[in-house]
Amino acid sequence: MKTSRMTWGIVGVTASLATLLFVGGFIYASGQILFPSAASSDLIVTPSKQQPDQAVEVKNKLEIVALGDSLTAGTGDGAGKGGYVGRVREKLEKQTGKPVYVTNNLAIPGYRADQLLEDLSQTNTTDALADADVVVLTIGANDIFQGGEGIFSGDNWEEFNVKAAEERLEPTLGKVEQILTLIHKASPEAIIFYVGLYHPFLDLDPEREGSVVVQKWNDSVFQVTNRYSNMVLVPTYDLFERNLIKYLSPSDHFHPNQDGYERIADRIAQILK
């Protein structure tokens, strides 16, 4: 009898413990479902890194560094406002209500991609970029169009030679990829604007063959800028497509006039708005 009672006692205790464990486990599981623990490693949310345009917003002042060719130097600007760079400065100052400075405009008329690459190997250029909040640049137009050299043929030099532009495309794109990579490395916290190309000879190209080349260029450069969160390609082709004569400088039929530069500056300012 004693043995039987002892056996039933052990069974009873075991059953009670099992019941308690079941109830406790149920309560714990319910709590995890209804009130999940913030300490669970798979529920911890890591804050995203501050975006460059957000960094610009918190600065007390903004510094712009400009690079590239004559479009960034402001050639053709009859108003003498420094092309799109000077206008971007004015627009950002008005938008942000804080001082905006063009601390360095290192653009040189006639510059090609290999020359800008050489500049980016110089300490003075990389030091300037390191302090920039905004970087703007244009490069590639002189490589592809070469001021019209080889672009036109025929008795009156009015036939657009698309092959000349096409042949220059790939070699130049490789250099521009290196340029953008180096600028990002020198200025990883700044927002970098690459101003896309337009077709300056569209009115002399009835078959619009050069438009395809320009579009290939812009698409290829976009593939590079899209790798970096701080880099933006600013489209300009559409601005000039229907208003070419209105926005081109009458002196050379290549660079924007003051109205063309104003529209480019509008694009950049809108992106930072």
CATH topology type of the largest domain: Rossmann fold
**Portion in strands:** 5-15%
Considering the protein shown, what is the CATH homologous superfamily of the largest domain?
SGNH hydrolase
Structural class: alpha/beta
Number of helices: 12
Please estimate the helix content.
40-55%
Number of domains: 2
Q: Cα-atom Rg, whole angstroms? A: 31 Å
* Shape designation: globular
Mean pLDDT: 83
Summarize the main sheet. Answer: 5 strands, parallel
What's the CATH architecture of the largest domain?
A: 3-Layer(aba) Sandwich
Listing every helix as H and every strand as E from the N terminus to the C terminus, the arrangement reads HHEHHEHHEHEEHEHEHHH
User: For the terminal residues, how far apart are their CA atoms?
Assistant: 90 Å
Strand order in the largest sheet: 2-1-3-6-7
Sequence stretches where pLDDT stays below 50 over 5 or more residues: 1-8, 13-50
Can you tag this structure with a few keywords?
SGNH_hydro_sf; Rossmann fold; 12 helices; alpha/beta; five-stranded parallel sheet; two-stranded antiparallel sheet; 273 residues; Ester_Hydrolysis_Enzymes; SGNH_hydro
Describe the structure.
This protein is of the alpha/beta class and 273 residues long. The chain has 2 domains: 2-43; 52-271, SGNH hydrolase (Rossmann fold). It has helices spanning 2-34, 52-58, 70-73, 83-96, 113-119, 123-130, 141-145, 162-186, 209-225, 237-241, 244-247, 258-271; strands at 62-68, 100-105, 134-138, 152-153, 159-160, 191-195, 231-234. The strands form 2 sheets. The chain has a 5-stranded parallel β-sheet, with helices on both faces. The protein has a two-stranded antiparallel ribbon with strand order 4-5. α4 packs across α12, α5 runs parallel beside α8 (162-186) and α8 (162-186) runs parallel beside α9. The longest helix is centred in the N-terminal third of the chain and has 33 residues, at 2-34. The radius of gyration is 31 Å and the shape is globular.
